[in-house]
Design a protein that fits this description.
mainly alpha; 5 helices; 53% helix; 0% strand
Length: 91
Amino acid sequence: MDSILATKPAGDVYTKQIRDFLASNFYIADVKSLSTTESLLDQGIVDSTGVLEVIGFIEETFGIIVEDSELLPENLDSIQGIAQFIARKRG
């Protein structure tokens, strides 16, 4: 398993969990077409209240604390951004 993790870019191991969370907690018309790089806010998937749900998911699922200074679009506004943020925090 570690060799698989080592060959994937940082954050890729978390992408499926994040996508599954979004699909089960937010309205997404076509989950399979959900881009990992597009803004969740711009696509209308997550709103300001939804960001709080995403933070709760990150903290509970991955056992990390999201600091106020980390509440930035590059950390929380796309699946890829969230995955890379988690990878940095857990790394």
